[in-house]
């Protein structure tokens, strides 16, 4: 039982942390509480289906690619298109109400509902099966773990490392940190904050899209027009748990939730029926002990 919790909890935690990372990134830089974050999780998943599983490659010259690279190409296209869509939506819908916290939340949750209805109109209510990018499995401590879950876990950690390097070593990353700490001072230094916010929104949505494909393909296996709700609630609880704006808090919070879910699912009778409340239970317990979360700062992009 301990082995199951350690292995499956770590894999789930890595993917959960990736999902929460996008949420905390956009909040940390711009202060936007993006309640449409789960929608980009859903958009990425459906675009992956369109580009890869539905036979999209048979309609374009990409059929010249080795067929085994099709799922990877579909993943890259889904993430890229989600980033472009989110940047456009930010400029058109969120930017005009930036600075009004209630207005931003109302606009983003309305956007999520609009995206849900568009998905419903285009794809219908039936669940769509999302096939894994890779097949097969490996034995870890005597447990069978699919290669898709191992791939998702590995890529999630790699993306965390890449983002840390990006925010700490690149010029754009330094600009993000400057804006998060003092927007007016950053503007006086010549930083284009609006362009930076748009880029941050795109990066946030791309991380959500990657998490959507990995979680759906490796855990739930199906997509539906309302799958954005649970990812939103999950990412929100992890971000609150780790501390708003804290990247390392999102990482730690994701693993805490992943381990807690597995412990309940495996160690509690009928645990599978209550697993959905685990993130919120953990969040409440932590907040009672530490009201600002584990790393309660507005932004923490440095080591």
Features of this protein?
single chain, 303 residues, mainly alpha, two-stranded antiparallel sheet, disordered C terminus
Describe the protein's architecture and organization.
The structure is a single chain. With 303 residues, the chain is mostly helical. 69% of the residues lie in helices and 4% in strands. The chain has eleven helices and four strands, in the order ααααβββααααβααα. It has helices at residues 2-30, 37-53, 70-94, 101-123, 147-169, 171-181, 183-188, 193-220, 229-242, 247-267, 278-289, and strands at 128-129, 137-140, 143-146, 222-223. Strands 1-4 form a two-stranded antiparallel ribbon. Strand 2 (137-140) and strand 3 (143-146) form a beta hairpin. The radius of gyration is 19 Å and the shape is globular. Mean pLDDT is 83; it is low at 298-303.
Regions with pLDDT < 50 over 5+ consecutive residues? 298-303
Give the total of beta strands. Answer: 4
Give the class from helix and strand content and strand pairing.
Answer: mainly alpha
Main sheet summary = 2 strands, antiparallel
Number of helices: 11
Report the sheet-strand fraction: under 5%
Measure the end-to-end span. Answer: 34 Å
What's the helical proportion of residues? Answer: 55-70%
Mean pLDDT: 83
Give the strand line-up of the largest sheet.
1-4
Q: Rg to the nearest angstrom?
A: 19 Å
- Give the CA-based shape: globular
- The helix/strand order is HHHHEEEHHHHEHHH
